[in-house]
Amino acid sequence: MLSKVITIAQQKGGTGKTTLAVHLALAFIKYHNLKIAIIDTDPQGSLGQWFMIRSEKKLSNGHLTFKTASLWGAQYESKTLKKDHDIVIIDTPPKIESDARPSIEAADLVLIPMAASHVDFWATGAIVDIAKKANKKILIQINRANQRSKLISKTKDFIKSLDILSTKTIIGHRQIYAASMGEGKTAVEKQKKSVAIEEIKQLSEQILSEVK
Prior knowledge:
Blueprint: E1 4-8, H1 17-32, E2 36-40, H2 46-56, E3 64-68, H3 73-82, E4 87-91, H4 101-105, E5 109-114, H5 118-133, E6 137-142, H6 151-161, E7 165-166, H7 175-181, H8 187-190, H9 195-211
Parallel strand pairs: 1-4, 1-5, 2-3, 2-4, 5-6, 6-7
């Protein structure tokens, strides 16, 4: 068992945390044959709704465990789940500020998704500060991106200014990510070959190398 915890956190809503969480979870299962647990700490419960649709449709959850917890409870829950799962992914709500500490302290890696926008730049600092104070490995994920946007290079410059690593893969703003979520699935289950699948596969490989 790898027994690693990945916390996905971002102050700003709408950065695609939940979509990223489930796509990573299913990529780890499909491409790396790992046993994965996902913890939903967001009161909005989007992750829970996705899992409920999945269960109702009787889709395979053989290597996937779903739990809910408070931000404080996630620390205890992740410790328990680590015993028999390779990776535990904690999906956090936006606007968490100091409440994020237990979920971040539980993590082996803090993954921070952000879009290529100045509003996202402003929101990212607080989570970075909490993760740095907790002495955690941090990766920033440029997410929901338009590859042709002039802001991509500014986003890369902003990440460099924070002295933090970003992932090598930029995740595009693709309809398949949201569409598959609505069916209780992910792009890696809906499609056999696509740019989206390559993005998620490459991201899963890098994150795995970072936590090993």
